[in-house]
Specification:
Rossmann fold; single chain; transferase; elongated; four-stranded parallel beta sheet; magnesium; 11 helices; seven-stranded mixed beta sheet; 2 domains; alpha/beta; ATP_PFK_prok-type; 11 strands
């Protein structure tokens, strides 16, 4: 294989640029050419493709977001969309593709592999909700961003003796809430993977105040409900002086942490190794600090992402 492509798809995540950089630099080291595809699968179908050089990825490792841009393109689920993409890859002489994104991106990569174009998927999402890997590109940066916000909010919560509900991202997964809840010393963590009783939440707040606590921090995963809805349920029980902060897309941005830069670099280089061997239909993950490859369809159909619920138990034991 002499020429490969690389694209980012779905939501952006800090570290995507580091992964692209690794793909380009490793490919050039191996004597291969790399073509960057703008706007994900939409750009692939449209032929928005350009050759990348060392200079194109210089000073990119520290930048958040993705300089190749990203876009959602549901039409790629159709065979018509896939065949149009294949026409463009043939036109540019692209023999293999690195796809950086989430589960939807993985399915697109698998579809192209079935059509004879080897693809390797890299898990890029702040939600950390991709099966087959302990951590995804962008997760570590996102939880550090959330943690900084939580530390600041705690100062205000203490000053005014208030209850704060902090809504964090994660889609249907509770990983961001779990890790930041424990790290910030939050009194309660509410995640989709664990049911909750709003009356018990209220009772925990009362008990905390009886013990002398000047504030309550509740970290709420967006997959449960939005923060204002949760606050309304609390207010219906008692006046806890609830304030809501929805951190939103600030969680996606910013310079990636050292861990995300290293992880993305490892993934990018490994993807090139696999494509050079002609292997496709694979996705990469890190399990117990080892970079491994899984079959994409097996990963999506037979594996399930499960957050570390030991953290939930830990927080219950040490938060009050």
């Amino acid at each position: 294989m002499k020429r490969i492509g690389v694209l980012t798809s779905g939501g952006d995540a800090p570290g995507m640029n580091a992964a692209i950089r690794a793909v380009v630099r490793k490919s050039l080291h191996e004597g291969m050419e790399v073509y960057g595809i703008n706007y994900g699968f939409a750009g692939l179908v449209a032929g928005d493709i350009r050759k990348l050089s060392r200079r194109d990825v210089g000073d990119m490792i520290q930048r958040g977001g993705t300089f190749l841009y990203s876009a959602r393109y549901p039409q790629f689920a159709t065979e018509e969309g896939q065949l149009k993409a294949i026409e463009q890859m043939k036109r540019f002489g692209i023999e293999g593709l690195v796809v950086i994104g989430g589960d939807g991106s993985y399915r697109g990569a698998y579809a192209l592999t079935k059509h004879g174009f080897p693809c390797v998927g890299l898990p890029g999402t702040i939600d950390n909700d991709i099966p087959g890997t302990d951590y995804t590109i962008g997760f570590d940066t996102a939880i550090n961003t959330v943690l900084e916000a939580l530390d600041r909010i705690r100062d205000t919560a203490t000053s005014h003796v208030r209850t704060f509900v902090i809504e964090v991202m994660g889609r249907d997964a509770g990983d961001i809430a779990l890790w930041t809840g424990v790290a910030s010393g939050a009194e309660q963590i509410i995640i989709p993977e664990k049911g909750f009783d709003i009356t018990q939440v209220a009772e925990n707040i009362r008990e905390g105040r009886e013990k002398g606590k000047k504030h309550t921090i509740i970290v709420l995963a967006e997959g449960v409900m939005n923060g204002h809805e949760f606050a309304e349920k609390l207010d219906a029980i008692d006046n806890f002086h609830v304030r809501v902060s929805t951190l939103g897309h600030v969680q996606r941005g910013g310079s990636p942490t050292a861990r995300d830069r290293v992880l993305a670099s490892q993934f990018g280089a490994k993807a090139v190794d696999l494509l050079k061997q002609g292997k496709g239909g694979l996705c990469l993950g890190i399990v117990k600090e080892e970079i491994i490859a899984h079959d994409i369809i097996d990963t999506l159909d037979n594996m399930k992402h499960t957050p570390n619920l030991d953290l939930y138990t830990l927080n219950e034991e040490i938060s009050n």
